Amino acid sequence: MSTDSDTDPYRVAEMSWQEIEAALERTSTLLLPVGSTEQHGHHLPLGVDVFMPEAIGERVAERSPALLAPPIWYGVSPHHTFKPGTFTVSTETFQRYVFGVCASAADWGIETVLLLNGHYLAQDPELEIVVRKLQEETDLTAFHVPLVNLFADVAAEIRTGEVSFHASEFETSIMLELFPELVDMDRAESVEPGDESLPLTDYDALGENKVGWALTAEDMAELTPTGNVGDPTVATEAKGETLVEAAVSNICLLVDEIEQRN
C-alpha cells in the first residue's frame, strides 16, 4: 500500500477498497497496461511488452489524474513460440478477458479506460475490437493506446538504425531508460531481415506497413536466429528517455482532457 503522504495512491493492486472509493472522487480514468510474455532476443527479458506500458502508465499517473490497473501479462503471441518462454492465448480468449477486466472496473465507478498496448503492431487488431465492444456494450469510454503511435514522430527523428521491428532500437532504448538492470547489451546482436517483405509490409515499426499481415512462428524462425529483428546495438538510454517522455506526455494530454470533460 502506498505510504507517500505527498502523492495520492494510484496503483490499484496496492490500494484498499476504501482507498479506491476515495480515489474515485478525484478520477474515473483507468490505465490498463496490456502486453504479452514473449521472447525478445538474447539481450532483453520476456516481460518487455508489459514492463514498458506499466512503467509509462506509472509516470502518467504521477502527473495526471488516473488509476493504474495491474497489467495483463499474457497476449496473442503465436509467432514467438519458436523460442522458449513465450506464452500465447487465442484471439477470442484474449478479447473476452480484456473486455471482462474493463467491464468489471465499470461496475465500481470507472468511466474511461485506456488500454496501454506494449505489444503494439501484433496485438492492435484484437484491442481495436475490444474497444469497439466496450463502447457498444458498456457505459465505458475506451481507447486503444499503442505505444509506438505515441512516440513515432520522435522515433523517426532520433533513430540511427535502418530497421527496428522487434526487440531492437526502440524497445531496447526504452528498456535502457526504464529497466537498465534487465538489459544485457553485451549480448545484443543486429539481425537484418531479408528482402522477402512485400510492398506495404516492411519489417520495421515505422515502415510502410499499410496493409494487415501477420507472421507465423515458422516465419519468425526463418527471419531471425536470435529472436530480434533489427539492430539493438544502436539503442541508448538517451533515446529511450526521449521515447518514453513522448509517450507519457501524449497520454497525459488525453487523460487531462478526459478528466476536464467529466
From TrEMBL:
A Pfam short name: Creatininase
Keyword Phosphoprotein: no
GO molecular function: hydrolase activity, acting on carbon-nitrogen (but not peptide) bonds, in linear amides; metal ion binding
Protein name: Creatinine amidohydrolase
Cofactor annotation: Zn(2+)
Domain of life: Archaea
Organism (species): Natronorubrum texcoconense
Gene Ontology biological process terms from the UniProt entry: riboflavin biosynthetic process
Entries under Gene3D superfamilies matching the protein: Creatininase
Keyword field: Hydrolase, Metal-binding, Zinc
Statement: the UniProt record of this protein carries the keyword Nucleotide-binding: no
Residues forming coiled coils: none
